[in-house]
Specification:
alpha/beta; Metallo-beta-lactamase, Chain A; eight-stranded mixed sheet; seven-stranded mixed sheet; 12 helices; 23% strand; globular; binds zinc ion
């Protein structure tokens, strides 16, 4: 009996192997089969990329980049998309974030604007790609870019650097497809007060306010708060532990806070010191004084009475599950409900508040 069963499995195994080899040989040699498979795959990808189910009645967040510039890894640098009704803003555009936005399927053609928290390179370097990605998808005007004093220099610089590209693309594809009037970035200067907040945008029930955060010597450095249909999301920007941020984030549903984990930074600087890479070691050591530790972020979330605390802008980006655990060290001691680790592609949905019903916060990874 046993021998018969073994023989049957032997035949089955041989049959499957022959089928796999035959399929592989057919795929390697048949151009028609290759073309058919590619066509089906591309069709599915294009169709999936065109689905626009973002926003609607909800206030919604998508992470198009969650890393600081420290270290390497698969995460894109800082980028948070916020949807409210038909409005769609992107806060910061770090390296690789435009590619990530495309991968996640963000509807770039209806991008309402980009808000910059400050002008460190890891927050602005993908602006040119955000411009192109939204222009080729039919953005109906120039790309509005908001930021503190200095925004004109950044926007003028990008427009100058990309000016030739704008011209090439109009010449090649035609004005009907790429209207020259929609080419380029348009600066909107924001002057946030030292304390308190200023409303910088109010339309169709969406209110965006800006507030100052401490990220010395970088001034200005801002955080942003989005309020829509009774729900609210606050983005810290890059900051030291800040009571001004706690005040601006009062009673928010979601606080997205930057974090630096000092033990992990020390592991890197120790290794750099041992290898005598002194300049880089100093650079990383310098970052310790203008960011917030996870425990401090938890204290700010408590002081602000926020519902859900989400960590992002990881310094350094956790390379594995152990490093991710280290980010949570001590957090539950000060905030029993803990915090959520963001990741590229994560989506947070906040349906509108209805009467006394408990407010829902849905979190899903892409
Ligand atoms: Zn940064
Ligand atoms: Zn910064």
């Amino acid at each position: 009996m046993l021998r018969k069963t073994l023989r049957l499995f032997g035949w089955l195994g041989t049959g499957i192997l022959i089928l796999v080899v035959t399929a592989f040989v057919a795929l390697s040699n048949s151009e028609a089969l290759q073309d058919r498979l590619v066509a089906v795959g591309v069709q599915n990808n294009v169709a999936a990329g065109l689905v626009d189910d973002w926003g609607g009645d909800n206030l919604e967040v998508a992470f198009c980049g969650t890393a600081s510039p420290m270290g390497n890894g698969p995460r894109a640098q800082q980028c948070v998309a916020v949807f409210a009704g038909d409005k769609f803003f992107i806060v910061d555009a770090g390296a690789r974030s435009a590619a990530r936005a495309n991968e996640i399927g963000l509807p770039m053609g209806r991008l309402s604007g980009v808000l910059l928290t400050h002008f460190h390179s890891d927050h602005i370097s993908a602006l040119g790609e955000m411009h192109l990605a939204s222009w080729v998808r039919g953005r109906p005007s120039k790309l509005d870019v908001y930021g503190g004093p200095g925004i004109n220099q950044v926007v003028d610089g990008f427009n100058m650097a990309y000016g030739l590209d704008y011209g090439y693309r109009v010449a090649h594809h035609g004005m009907a497809v790429l209207p020259p009037a929609h080419a380029g970035l348009r600066a909107h200067a924001i002057d946030a007060p030292e304390t308190g907040s200023v409303t910088i945008y109010e339309e169709d029930g969406l209110k965006i306010s800006a507030f100052t955060v401490p990220h010395p010597p970088i001034t200005p450095a801002y955080g942003y708060r989005f309020d829509y249909r009774g729900r609210s999301v606050v983005i810290s920007g890059d900051t030291k532990k800040s009571n001004r941020l706690a005040a601006a984030a009062q009673n928010a549903d979601v606080l997205i806070h930057e974090v630096l984990q000092p033990q992990l930074v020390k592991a890197i600087t120790d290794a750099l010191d041992a290898a005598e890479v002194d300049a880089l070691s100093k650079l990383l050591t310098d970052t310790l004084d203008y960011h917030t530790t996870p425990v401090e972020a938890a204290e700010i979330a408590n002081a602000a009475n926020v519902d859900t605390l989400v960590f992002n802008h990881f310094a350094p980006p956790p390379a594995n599950a152990i490093a991710a655990r280290i980010f949570m060290r001590g957090v539950k001691d000060v905030r029993p409900q803990g915090a959520v680790m963001s990741d590229d592609g994560m989506r947070i949905t906040l349906p509108p508040k209805t009467g006394d019903a408990p407010s829902i916060i849905e979190i899903s990874s892409n």
